[in-house]
Amino acid sequence: MAVLGGVFFCVFFAYDMIQGYAAQLYGATLAANCEAALYASFTASCVAAPAIVDSLGSRVALFVGALCYAGLALASLGYASAGAPPALRPLVVGAGALVGAGASLLWTAQGRVMLAQRGGAGPGGAFALFWGLFNASAVAGGLVSWGYFSRSPLTPGGEAPLFGAFGALTFVGALGAFALRPLPSDARWRTHARARTALRSPCAAARFVGTHLLATVRVLSQAPFMRASPLWLATGIAPAYELATFADRFLAPSPLGLGLALFYAAEAAGGALAGALLDRGARATARAADGRARDGATRHAPCACSARSHASAARAVLHVALAFGSIGSAVAFALETAALRGSRARRPLARDMARSLPPLAALGFWGAADALSQAFVYWHIAAHAAGATLASAPSALDAACDALPVAQAVHSADDGCDSTDAHEAALLAHALPVEGDEGAHATDALRHAAPLRVGACVGALDEQAQVAPPSSRELPDGRAAGEPQGPATAAERESALGRAVGCFKLVQSLGWCIGFALSPPQRVPPRAQAIGAWLLLLVAVALLALLPARTRDGAAAHTRVERDCAEDAGR
């Protein structure tokens, strides 16, 4: 997590400085157009990002996404070096759209890497470490910006050296992605790299991407994520009011810099608090499992009471987020009401430190609330992404990869099976959603993949399976062919995590677009914005805390765990 946090620190240290002073560096109109292109591109790209990350692997996706951020710095460098001519403004806007596309890859890969964390720090500690480093970039960038621009006047088109430094720092962060340890699915995909030859077929590539797009959109049809979607939306809408409307109205330029630094410092502190709460629940679950093992229990499922302790810790994170958000909203409501009762002709700017304390306090509480909310979101995704739809069958990718050696052997016997078709079948099988018994055997995966000419391959595989039963064939990892690695294999889990994170970022980006579109006071009264943001958070927490999700498979699993615990207690 330290390496991943370091990558994001370098990338966003540069980007936050560009974004924070975009109006001064580019001019108000160009800055607004660049931001609009960025968020529109990000929203559209989030649908396709999980498929691309699955194809490239997490490390390469992080590298490519970070390079897109460097593209904005380089485009800005060219724009500034040329004297900021109007003819080059479309270049900056296009670079903003490129950043949006890269951001979808960057954040989808980040979610997969962070949620696949194993060993070392617990899942909460991993989030706290990453979130702290990520938000430290905003704090450090704000301080450096304050020091740089306090000595050098802001002149649109005259900051070429600054953009050059931004580009170099972002490129260093992009290279840091290769210092990450490969995920299990990345290593497995690289082991069977020849399956990528299927991408040479346009039809196969279209089916591969189309299936992934459909699977990503279908995430929102699952009950746990439908209930979580209001919270996803709130994490985008609320910061738009807090940072774009409230902070600019109630803080003068000097206290505003301090307020933004406080907001992001509170984000880091909130991430640490969320990590401590979540890891405390995880430790309670681990202690209960160890106790069951010492007592001679034969089942390895965690006791329901320990699972409840972990869920209770997650609910505590959500409740603390609501409490902090409510305090910040109460302060904002009081300030907005006072401003509404005062003179409408005067902007309610707090120009002295004493009058700036309430707005600063509100920003601090909001920053902590946002970190706690997003920590819960990632915990919720990790808990449900590889749930009932993946728990009942081995991975289609595993089955297809298991079939590759057999398909190659059949091909070498000159039975009419083309190896490229077998590779294409393996690749397409990876893209198929795994439901029920689908993907349980290599031949099923090949049939469902519907390659161009693999009929002979499927028949030959059936004959091979009769000669060597699945249980007698072992894989390189010591697992019998067709045998799952657990409730969900690594490839299944990471693909599901990628799709869920991509869907989360899609909804969150829609929230940003809605929030920034409504943030101007002349469109929606600021007090109404404050009330609406708080009500959305309240409804989101109520849906998650008061209406626990129980899918059919989830309820059956819960009943089995309760029965196991009762039997163990009886023994």
Automatic annotation (TrEMBL):
For this protein, the parts annotated as crossing the membrane are 36-53, 60-81, 87-107, 128-149, 161-180, 256-278, 316-339, 531-549
Q: Which organism is it from?
A: Diacronema lutheri (Unicellular marine alga)
Q: Which GO terms describe its cellular component?
A: membrane
The name this protein goes by in its record: Uncharacterized protein
Instruction: List the signal peptide residues.
Output: 1-22
Its record classes its membrane topology as: Multi-pass membrane protein
**PANTHER family recorded for this chain?**
ET TRANSLATION PRODUCT-RELATED (PTHR23294), UNC93-LIKE PROTEIN C922.05C (PTHR23294:SF59)
InterPro entries xrefs: Ion_channel_UNC-93 (IPR010291), UNC-93-like_regulator (IPR051617)
Pfam families on file: UNC-93
Which superkingdom is the protein from? Eukaryota
Keyword list, A-Z: Membrane, Signal, Transmembrane, Transmembrane helix
Q: Where in this protein does the record put region Disordered?
A: 467-492
Q: Where in the cell is it found?
A: Membrane
